[in-house]
Amino acid sequence: MSKINSFKSKKTIKVNGKDYVIYSLTEAEKNGLKDISKLPKSLKVLLENLLRYEDNSTVDKIQINAIQSWLNTKTSDTEIAYRPARVLMQDYTGIPAVADLAAMRDAVKAKNKDPKKINPLSQVDLVIDHSVMVDNYANKDSFDLNVEKEFSRNGERYSFLKWGQQAF
Questions:
Q1: Is residue 26 part of a domain?
Q2: Which of 73, 99, 125 is the last residue of a domain?
Q3: Based on the domain organization, do 65 and 97 belong to the same domain?
Q4: Phi/psi of residue 41, each to 5°?
């Protein structure tokens, strides 16, 4: 999270007795980011992200002001550093990513370093899009037989995913 709060947007709210840190665009507008309430929602999302991660290294006031100045020019040449809070991956990209992370951990361990330092920097939700093949039908054991065949075909994949869920 942000160590710098140039536009005094960082606030704490309490919901059901629990404190949450937010970055208020209303407060940012009061503290120098004029008229940002007029921005399109997509740019408001990007602006909140920049306020959240402002550190004067990867995110600075120039990037934040570039979003605000879009109101006047409807364009910007300023590159921004967007950091997603969550990454959604389908299994065909997520499984190789988990395998890559495991390989990186092995390489780090081989150098006598702590492999637990290799982790995703953002939360990742892996969606497994899977269809069960129907090999047996029209009898009372069809479901059980199809499930058994399914685990026979994909057991290694399921085991790897379960391991990855625990490891990362």
A1: yes
A2: 73
A3: no
A4: -55, -40
